[in-house]
Amino acid sequence: MMYNGLEDKNMPFEILDVDAILEKELQNEDFRRSYERLKKEYDLIDQIVKARKEKNITQVQLAKYAHVSQQAISRLEKEKHIPKIDTLMRIVDGLGMRLTITER
To answer: pTM, whole model, 2 decimals?
Structure first.
């Protein structure tokens, strides 16, 4: 098996080209709609995590500022749970930020 131009006979798994698989799957209209909806959610989560880290705030500190549990912050950041809008707004407020809606 080749990996980055090198042969590795000890690799017990197949290397997948995720970009090629995604490109193919995005041709399916139902998959594309679902993917785009979820991507927006995960992009928002990524922005929240990035803002917390840039502000050098721990999960515990953010939980205190937002009046939510540290577990709620952890679940959000691990993308295990999308919180209710009121919880999301408390987290955004805890970061000293605001959520803005604009036209596409």
So the answer is: 0.69
Phi-psi region of 68 (alpha: psi -120 to 50; beta: other; left: phi over 0): beta
**Residue 2 resides in a domain:** no
Vertex 14, ends 13 and 20: CA angle to 5°? 150
Q: What is the CATH number of the domain that holds 81?
A: 1.10.260.40
Q: Decide if 12 is inside a domain.
A: no
Q: Which of 26, 103, 100, 97 is nearest to 66 (CA)?
A: 97
| Interval 8-39: pLDDT, tens | 566 677 888 888 999 999 999 999 999 998 88
Domain presence at residue 100: no
